[in-house]
Every structure is written in C-alpha cells, then in structure tokens.
C-alpha cells in the first residue's frame, strides 16, 4: 500500500477518502516492517465520537504525534494531562471575556476596512486578477498576530510585501504532511543531511522562533507596565497578567511562551484563511446561493448599502445571518481547514466498528473523508467535526465564526468574485487544507 500513498502524495486526502469508502469507513494501513508506518485510519462517526468524546481519557496525542509535530513544543495542541488542562482553562477564560471578544471583532473589522476592501477596490478598478487565497492568508495572519501577540505584521497592504515569518508557517505545514507520508527513517535522514522538506522545515522554524522570541523578550522587559496597564487585550499579555496575579509569570521560560503563542497563531490564521478560500470558491460555483446570502445581509444589515456609514456588526446582528452561517458550515464540512486528527490509545481498545487497537497504535481521524462520504451524510448524526469534538474541541470556534462572518459580510455585500477561467482547483499537500495553486479571481463592485 505504501507505493499507492507515495504515488498519490499530491492528492492524499482524496486518496484516503477513496480507500475509506471501499473499506466501510475504517482500514488498517500496513507499511513495510522497517518503516514504523502502520496506522489505523477512520472516518466512521461512531469511531470518531468514541475517540474524541466517549473514551477521550484513553486517547492521547501519542509518541508519534510528538515526533512529527515537534515544532508545537508544549503548546496547547501538543500538551497532555495537567499542562494541557492548565493552558486550556486559562485560554478559555481569556477568550470568554467580553473585552477580548470585542477586541476580536474590532481587529477583524479594522483590518477588513483599512486593508482588504481598499485592495479589492483597486483590483476591481484596474481589472487585474488576484490570488484571493493569498489575501486571506495575509489577513488572517495579521489578525492572529494582533490577537495573540499584540503586534501587526502588516503583511496585508497594497505592496503585498514578503514577510519571512508568515511564509515560514506555510513551509512548516507542508513539511509536516510529508512526515506522515514518508517512512520515519526517510524524513529523519533528510533532517540529518539538511536536504528536502526537512531543510525547509528547519529554516522555517528558525525564522519563526526568532520572530516570536523577540516579541516575548520585549513583553518580559516591560513586565511591570503590563501589570499596571489594562488596555492590552492580546492573549500573551493577558496570559502573563493572569500568571503574575498567581505569582508565577516571572519564572516561566521563554520556551513556554514561544510554544504557547506559536500554537495560538497557527490555529487562528489557518482556520480562517483556509475556510474563506474554499467558501468563496463554492460561492462562485453557486451564484444563486451567493445572491441569497447577499439579500440576507442587506436585510439584516441595511447600513452596508450606505457608503461611509458602516459599523462593526454586533454578535446579535451576526446571529441573524442564518443562511450565511449554514453556508459556512457546509463549506467547512466539505473542506475542513484541519483535514485530519492524530491520536493514539494509552491502553488496548476496541472501536465501535469492531477494530481492535493496541497501545500507541497511530490512529488518524479523517475529517475530510468524513465530511463527504455518502454513507455518512444520508443520515447525519455525530458528523460535523471541523472544530474537533469532546474535551479538546476548538476553543476558538466562536471567534472563528465571528471573523468569517465579518469578512464574508464585507466582501459579499460589496463585490462579485469570479474565478479565473481554467484555474485549477486542487487541495494542497499540507496538514492545512489550502489550495495548491491559490485561487485566482476577478473582482467587480456590487454597488
């Protein structure tokens, strides 16, 4: 089976979906004995529910996850047990604060109004084509850095400057997928000889580490001011303040803060940018649905028709956009930004499908496959896992929906987006479901 995986590495998610359909939703992948690549892959909703929720305590990230995703360090995506619980509890309390939720909406709105909309207006006036995926990636990256670090890298502007640390995140994501596909000995040899994807990974990690450690150092040097002032709402500052109130912040290592912020930025930028790209592509292929969403926006947010009178939609106004919410959910079902999840049982277990798995068996949950298998969607139940499920469900789910809706409202109410004729639409070979060739579009004004 390994040759099939390698031959289909460029379309690995669709290849896995085909295998899962043929095997009833779960299959055991057997690699050559020397590769340590044996793994169970499933898209069976009952199995996913069992692993993520019902028997959550028996499923950790596992040693293989730690090897592959070593870049995450001890951040919330990789941490286990008490360290994970402490981070999750603190981050959840910070995200639930009204001040932070308002900060999210204001940050997203300001970026859209001052950067994205002027860029799209320029594109529409000149008749140029633009890679809207790149614009979304830059927008989401800027917002994520502001929310996590309190710093705006201004990657989204008319010049579209090269931002090394933004590009480094993309390089890391691509390399991480190949660690899943290649036998461990292969990618470790690449790392040893500083070649291939592993050299790309090493350079990218170095750039990101330098970027994050610089801002963490600045925060630590201004620690007293951080304690005294209350107008900074970014997550790093707020987290430092919480620990300081407990007497622990000065003793926390830079490595802990780096891992924390890296995980937060990665989560925020990827969910929003990938989701927006696939959502707008689907809209261009379904113009009738696009018009329904536009009319819903004009009905519940009439000020969008009055140039210069825009204001940030509040949460209640966004909740009225039911059709938009449904369309976003449908897009996320078909194209989940994080297409798979990696787990391993602590003790032997038997899945609802009848498959027995031994301790530390690599277990991959394919959300991409689960969202498009006809056998599942005939009778939906526990099926929508885009934001994970159970105790590790995504803390930023509501924040992401607020950002997605604000950006969608701003664009749909003002512009028509049309994909360049003949442009190839293919998922990228990455742990994040970007488009391999970007999304080249033409933009025209709606009013």
TrEMBL record:
* Cited InterPro entries: Cyt_P450, Cyt_P450_CS, Cyt_P450_E_grp-I, Cyt_P450_sf
Its needed co-factors are: heme
Residues the entry annotates as binding heme: 394
Recorded topology in the membrane: Single-pass membrane protein
Q: Where does it sit, as one GO cellular component term?
A: membrane
**Any Pfam family hit:** p450
Q: Which UniProt keywords apply?
A: Heme, Iron, Metal-binding, Monooxygenase, Oxidoreductase
Gene Ontology molecular function: heme binding; iron ion binding; monooxygenase activity; oxidoreductase activity, acting on paired donors, with incorporation or reduction of molecular oxygen
Q: Which domain of life is it from?
A: Eukaryota
Q: Which GO terms describe its biological process?
A: lipid metabolic process
Location in the cell: Membrane
In the record, the note on similarity to other proteins reads: Belongs to the cytochrome P450 family.
From the Swiss-Prot or TrEMBL record, give the protein name. Answer: Cytochrome P450 CYP4/CYP19/CYP26 subfamily
């Amino acid at each position: 089976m390994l040759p099939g995986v390698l031959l289909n590495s460029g379309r690995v998610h669709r290849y896995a979906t085909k295998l899962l359909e043929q095997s009833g939703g779960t299959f055991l992948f057997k690699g050559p004995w020397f590769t340590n690549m044996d793994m169970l892959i499933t898209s069976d909703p009952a199995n996913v529910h069992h692993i993520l929720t019902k028997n959550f305590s028996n499923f950790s990230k596992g040693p293989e996850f730690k090897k592959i995703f070593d870049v995450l360090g001890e951040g919330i995506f990789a941490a286990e047990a008490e360290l994970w619980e402490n981070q999750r509890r603190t981050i959840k309390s910070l995200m639930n604060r009204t001040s932070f939720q308002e900060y999210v909406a204001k940050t997203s709105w300001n970026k859209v109004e001052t950067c994205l909309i002027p860029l799209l207006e320029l594109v529409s006036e000149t008749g140029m084509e633009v890679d809207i995926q790149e614009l979304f990636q830059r927008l989401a990256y800027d917002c994520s850095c502001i929310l996590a670090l309190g710093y705006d890298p201004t990657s989204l502007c008319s010049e579209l400057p090269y931002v090394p640390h933004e590009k480094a995140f993309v390089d890391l994501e691509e390399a991480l997928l190949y660690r899943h596909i290649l036998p461990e000995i292969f990618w470790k040899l690449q790392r040893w000889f500083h070649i291939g994807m592993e050299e790309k990974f090493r350079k990218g990690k170095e750039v990101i580490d330098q970027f994050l450690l610089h801002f963490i150092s600045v925060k630590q040097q201004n620690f007293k001011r951080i304690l005294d002032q209350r107008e900074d709402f970014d997550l790093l500052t707020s987290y430092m303040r919480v620990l300081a109130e407990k007497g622990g912040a000065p003793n926390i290592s830079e490595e802990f803060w780096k891992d924390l912020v890296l995980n937060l930025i990665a989560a925020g930028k990827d969910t929003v940018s990938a989701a927006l790209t696939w959502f707008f592509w689907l809209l261009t292929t379904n113009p009738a649905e696009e018009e329904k969403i536009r009319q819903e926006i004009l009905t519940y947010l009439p000020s969008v028709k009055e140039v210069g009178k825009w204001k940030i939609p509040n949460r209640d106004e966004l909740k009225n956009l039911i059709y938009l919410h449904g369309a976003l959910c449908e897009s996320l079902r078909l194209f989940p930004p994080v297409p798979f999840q990696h787990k391993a049982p602590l003790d032997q277990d038997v899945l609802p499908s009848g498959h027995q798995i031994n301790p530390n068996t690599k277990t991959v949950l394919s959300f991409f496959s689960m969202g498009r298998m006809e056998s599942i969607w005939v009778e939906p139940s526990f099926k929508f896992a885009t934001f994970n499920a159970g105790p590790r469900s995504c803390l930023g789910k509501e924040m992401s929906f607020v950002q997605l809706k604000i950006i969608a409202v701003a664009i749909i109410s003002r512009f028509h987006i049309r994909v360049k004729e003949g442009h190839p639409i293919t998922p990228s070979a990455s742990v994040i479901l970007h488009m391999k060739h970007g999304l080249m579009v033409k933009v025209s004004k709606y009013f």
